[in-house]
Protein: Peroxisomal sarcosine oxidase
Organism: Sinocyclocheilus rhinocerous
Amino acid sequence: PLEMSSEVYDCIVIGAGIQGSCTAYQLAKNKQKTLLLEQFVLPHSRGSSHGQTRVIRKTYEEDFYVQMMHESYELWAQLEREAGVELYRRTGLLVMGPENGEGFSRLKATMQRHKIPTVFLEKQEFSQHIPNVNLADGNGALIDTFAGVLYADRALRAVQRLFQSCGGVIKDGEKVIDIRPGAEVTVTTDSGVYRGRSLVITAGPWANTLLRHTGLQLPLKVVKINVCYWKEEIPGTYSVGQSFPCFIEMEPKEGEYDIYGLPSNEYPGLMKVCYHMGSETEPDERDKQTDRGDIDILVRFVTRCLPGLVPVPAVVESCMYTVTPDHNFVLDSHPTYGNIIIGAGFSGHGFKFGPIIGKLLSQLAMGQVPSHDLSPFRIQRFQSHARSSL
Ligand SMILES: Cc1cc2nc3c(=O)[nH]c(=O)nc-3n(C[C@H](O)[C@H](O)[C@H](O)COP(=O)(O)OP(=O)(O)OC[C@H]3O[C@@H](n4cnc5c(N)ncnc54)[C@H](O)[C@@H]3O)c2cc1C
Ligand SMILES: O=C(O)[C@@H]1CCCC=N1
């Protein structure tokens, strides 16, 4: 039998990806005795938060994401100061999309409504501003000038360090195998039993595996992303050093989902260009999913749009998205157990929100009113969905 710890934590957080780590840090900063449990030995590359870089941007169609990103930028800057490390590099973000399409028009309108510093590029001046990129016929282009790159691995380590420096406890290499809801939630791992007055589940692709212990299943699809790096024909052509921006092509001709890229930086001479969707996988069987349909789409895109890259990926890494039907997050209390809080379904765009999500989930865990409207993120929106069982 496993030994029960005598300690009762104010909060136990399951999952030390960016969302769980930021939540745990916010709790510890608020003087909550907090335990952060992680199934793998840290750092690891088997979830969704590993890798050197992520895009940060305010470029969203929806007002609620823009509002959250205003605060998230401030919290990232605060984290940089607290940790004493650079986490954000401003590069700008080029968005290309069908000029008269609904998505691109909505995006432009939201940028203008929120007065987000944006440069709108006319077709005739495009190549002068953005050399070595072919703008598709009928596409418009804009630049979100404060967008950039987050140093992801570095950020995750920094947040976990800050959490520990506030007295937080991390137990890694401990997989949670059971959850017993109650006024004190009992959490069993493969090596111990812990109690907490509240529980936060931020388990990324494993969210439904854990939620099963609480009688809840969410309509989440886990997909494997082939993270592709492409060699520059002339090293530096698309580099941070040459002020090349991150980019998103909305509704590309080559596929149903967006294609995005980050300037070459982490691997000199290699630029990251990815497809914003992948094939379904079981999170523990990620490496058995070998579908390369997304890479075929990317090869066609790179050939058409980025003529300075060799159109064959030089390095392919793996990562996972946990996707909801509407691609919006789940940030809510459990429908039956109010002291169990869920952060899930970040749908491939959650990293940039890490600090604000940490703040919101910690507010829910402490029984406070969240400081942003969480109605777009409620579990209730899935009520009619076949796979949700409340
Ligand atoms: C290729 C790729 C590119 C992306 N690009 C961007 C981008 O440019 N910008 C952006 O904002 N976002 C981006 N994202 C999305 C972002 O990275 C994710 O939304 C975010 O990392 C999700 O974090 P998480 O903490 O929810 O999940 P995870 O990082 O997966 O963390 C969950 C953790 O829970 C642990 N866990 C699970 N089950 C258990 C258990 N039983 N016991 C203990 N621990 C457990 C897991 O091991 C894992 O460490 C990208 C994602 C990918 C894959
Ligand atoms: O979230 C982001 O900004 C990136 C780029 C666009 C698609 C998904 N992730």
Summary: The chain has two domains: 4-49+153-220+326-382, 93-145+221-323.
